[in-house]
Design brief:
The protein is α/β, with parallel strands linked by helices and about 325 residues long. It has a single domain, classed as Alpha-Beta Barrel (TIM Barrel). It contains 18 helices and 8 strands. It has an 8-stranded parallel β-sheet with strand order 1-2-3-4-5-6-7-8. The chain binds 6-chloro-9H-purine and zinc ion. Zinc ion (ZN) binds next to loops. One of its GO terms (cellular component) is cytosol. It holds the Pfam family A_deaminase. It comes from Cryobacterium psychrophilum. Catalyzes the hydrolytic deamination of adenine to hypoxanthine. Plays an important role in the purine salvage pathway and in nitrogen catabolism. Its cofactor is Zn(2+).
Length: about 325
């Protein structure tokens, strides 16, 4: 039986974390007050009662609505520092963090305001919290690809401090193929590529992400298990899957944690990693996900070490930077 201290000390790397998904109810209320924004909830308890989801879209509705309180560069920096503090407490050593700029620009926040707010906090993450970090901008697949392409050009022009791009939001009906041009442009500029695929969408979307967007990691990817040829491909090429157990349960992709295919995925030789996705919404941070998996599946030191090592190797850190974490 592993203890919380052993889980804490595991050199953990977070590869699937939406910074907006770390916006805790307390911070929502504080920022609402600071910015003079009216929220539809009388208090934190009423807000907390909204955190019951039936699927991805029901979560996204609340996730986007709550972002209304994020207005200034300081708001984005405070949000990011709050996450980094919690990540440090969890024993996270490195985090590659998603942000959704379109979720902010569509409501009138400047691209520079949101990107610089998050990036300014990340620039100090190592010195302030002992957590190294990198920023990945994710595009909303349920909005026009032309909008994403324009933003990609803007990000290049402003020399945004990002290591890569991703694709997220409502998956079904929004296949990766729509974003080929955006990802080609990112690759031309030396950016890494990842995409959410096979969360609610079919294995076909995972194939498209790999073959058309040429991603080096798949976010979620658990529906890949429905396609044995795809599983073989993912194993052979050791393509990392950033799996998010609490997210899958809370968004009803999986009934209960005990039904999660993660142990089977590990046994099959897939390069799976454990991540927290939107921890303020799904019931816990990276340490909580690891602890629950350990309790549910009786994971021992060997399984946990494999999961931790997979994440280090799947990260965009250089081999030199990976070495001390292995
Ligand atoms: C997300 Cl869980 C999930 N899936 C797709 N898009 C997202 N954006 C934030 N969380
Ligand atoms: Zn996600």
């Amino acid at each position: 039986m592993l203890t919380p201290a052993q889980i804490h000390d595991l050199p953990k790397v977070e590869l699937h974390l939406h910074i907006e998904g770390t916006l805790e109810p307390e911070l929502i209320m504080q920022l609402a007050e600071r910015n003079g924004i009216r929220v539809p909830w009388a208090d934190i308890e009423e807000l907390r009662r909204q955190y019951e989801f039936t699927d991805l879209q029901s979560f996204l509705n609340l996730y986007y609505a709550n972002m209304a309180v994020l207005q200034t560069e300081a708001d984005f920096a405070d949000l990011t520092r709050a996450y980094l503090r919690r990540a440090q407490a969890a024993g996270v050593r490195h985090a590659e963090i998603f942000m959704d700029p379109q979720a902010h620009t569509v409501r009138g926040v400047d691209l520079a305001t949101c990107v610089n707010g998050v990036a300014s906090a990340l620039a100090e993450s190592e010195a302030e919290f002992g957590v190294s970090s990198a920023l990945i901008v994710t595009f909303l697949r349920d909005r026009e690809a032309a909008e994403a392409l324009t933003m990609m050009h803007d990000l290049i022009e402003m020399r945004a401090p990002i290591v890569g791009i991703g694709l997220d939001s409502a998956e079904v009906g929004h296949p990766p193929i729509d974003f080929v041009e955006v990802f080609a442009l990112a690759r031309e500029h030396g950016l890494q590529c990842v995409a959410h695929a096979g969360e609610e969408g079919p294995p076909e979307y995972v194939w498209q992400a790999l073959e058309l967007l040429q991603v080096s990691r798949i976010d979620h990817g658990i529906r890949s298990l429905e396609d044995e040829v795809l599983v073989d491909h993912l194993v052979t090429h050791q393509i990392p899957l950033t799996v998010c157990p609490f997210s899958n349960v809370r968004l009803r992709v999986i009934d209960t944690l005990a039904d999660h295919p993660l142990p089977a995925m590990l046994a099959r030789g897939l390069a799976v990693t454990v991540n927290s996705d939107d921890p303020a919404y799904f019931g816990g941070y990276l340490d909580d996900n690891f602890m629950a998996l350990t309790d549910t599946f009786n994971f021992g030191a060997v399984e946990l070490a494999t999961l931790a090592r997979n994440a280090v190797q799947a990260s965009f850190l250089t081999a030199d930077a990976q070495a001390p974490l292995l």
